[in-house]
Design goal:
This protein has 439 residues and is α/β, with parallel strands linked by helices. It contains 17 helices and nine strands. α1 packs antiparallel against α6. The longest helix has 28 residues. The protein is elongated and about 90 Å long. It starts with a helix and ends in a 17-residue tail after the last strand.
Length: 439
């Protein structure tokens, strides 16, 4: 270890010890310092745990006294550690909120510096084969440190917000809302930047084709769109997109048997998509949220579509799939906010749907975790209006909508050209009356 690192460690430890000495006698500083540092920011794990202990005491009892810290240190580090803390308390001059806040900010600065050092070490140990990916990941990590703000800094009094709020409401501007292009669906649910929207269905209903239609609509409307297909290959995705846009029979494209008039149609379709579409496609399987986020930062994506949740993986290992899915959906919701993008996530439904007399999905049918329902801003179920008809219309039912009402839209699905079209039909279960709201 070189002298510079030794000095940095010594200064970090000294500052942490002084902070704990000031904090022990200034419990009223708790709300201020909690917005600046967390226990993970401490260089000394023992001091980080002591800090957490004092914060827990403050939350439970409304405060603490220096003896609370000394007793904790004595029990967990011995008499020598307690004596070191006593010496620090005796040597501190500025024992007030300002002194605690000033030292907390230094702890944060040292924490950011150490994280930046770790990123630099990751870069130094890379190989020529992996250097591009490591650099992208490292730059993302560094930008995250640079943009990081404490919770205290992001809070503003409502008076500061009201003028901008009133101006916005008179502006007729909706730049944060990204329409699907399906007017009836947009009349029910608005997709806003920062939202996580879930589209769920049983297999063979057409959810991949549906989001393929959405991807094209978004991308030709000027929104940079990233489509992550964890199940289909790049060629299969392009077959579906070209079939839908060019109204070319899908089976001709899938079999590479374009002949006659479809030569001309394919040429026009390719030219149109090439010139108008802002679409990125990634067909790598088993991706993590971190993988997807890194690529979307680079692409500056407005809309991120992931097909589908149950094929994603966590960066950590979980014994339970439920816990893994919970982490993924939480991270995707955070990613939507960080990137100021709409994230559309496909999900499977469990088999219970098919056991019902009228097989309409409900929120409890979401497969693997209740966190999907919890984290999503909106949830749309796709199901056949007639489960016994292979050419059935598709019911899109908005089952959850934080920004508005719930409702239904009936789509015609032309499987020959992989295209969804809105209809003005009302959903009527076989042998029953029309159900639910239709827009």
């Amino acid at each position: 270890m070189n002298t510079v690192n030794e000095n940095q460690e010594r200064l970090a430890l000294q500052n942490e010890l002084e902070f704990m000495a000031v904090f022990a006698g200034t419990p009223e500083a708790a709300p201020d310092v909690w917005g600046i540092i967390s226990p993970e920011d401490f260089y000394s794990p023992a001091m980080g745990k002591c800090y957490r202990h004092l914060m827990n005491l403050h939350e439970q009892n409304g405060g603490f006294i220096p003896e609370d810290m000394l007793n904790y240190v004595r029990q967990n580090g011995g008499e020598e550690a307690a004596n070191a803390v006593k010496s620090a308390i005796a040597g501190v001059i500025t024992c007030n909120v300002q002194g605690a806040v000033s030292r907390a900010r230094k702890i944060k600065q040292y924490s950011i510096f150490r994280q930046a050092q770790r990123v630099a070490e990751d870069i130094s140990f890379t190989t020529p084969e992996t250097v591009e990916e490591v650099l992208e990941t490292s730059l993302l990590a560094l930008s995250g440190l640079a943009m990081e703000k404490s919770s205290a800094e992001t809070m503003r009094p409502i008076q500061d917000m009201l003028v901008n709020f009133v101006n916005q409401k008179h502006s007729n501007r909706t730049e944060n809302i990204i329409p699907t292009g399906f007017s009836r669906l947009d009349g029910i649910v608005s997709l806003s930047k920062g939202d996580l929207a879930v589209i769920a269905a049983r297999p063979a209903v057409g959810k991949s084709a549906f989001v393929g239609n959405l991807a094209v609509r978004f991308s030709v409307s000027g929104y940079t769109t990233a489509l992550f297909s964890l199940e289909m290959s790049e060629v299969q995705i392009l077959d579906r997109i070209m079939s839908s846009v060019g109204r070319i029979p899908h089976n001709f494209l899938a079999k590479n048997s374009i002949e006659g008039k479809y030569d001309n149609e394919l040429g026009k379709t390719v030219s149109f998509v090439y010139e108008k579409s802002k679409l990125f496609i990634d067909d790598r399987s088993r991706q993590t949220v971190r993988d997807i986020k890194r690529k979307c930062v680079k692409a500056k994506a407005d809309v991120i579509i992931i097909d589908y949740l149950q094929l994603m993986r966590s960066a950590r290992k979980y014994e339970s799939k439920v816990n893994e899915v919970a982490e993924i959906t939480r991270d995707l919701k955070i990613m939507a906010g960080d990137l100021n993008a709409v994230v559309i996530l496909l999900s499977q439904l469990n088999r219970d749907v098919e056991k019902r007399a009228i097989p309409r999905p409900v929120l409890s049918d979401l497969r693997d975790s209740g966190s999907i329902e919890q984290d999503a801003n909106s949830i749309i179920f796709l199901s056949k209006t007639d489960p016994n008809d292979t050419n059935s219309d598709i019911l899109a039912e908005v089952a959850k909508n934080r920004s508005g009402a719930v409702g239904q839209v009936v789509f015609a699905f032309d499987r020959n050209i992989q295209t969804f079209s809105e209809t003005d039909k009302k959903y009527t279960p076989k042998g029953g009356a029309a159900v639910g709201r239709v827009y």
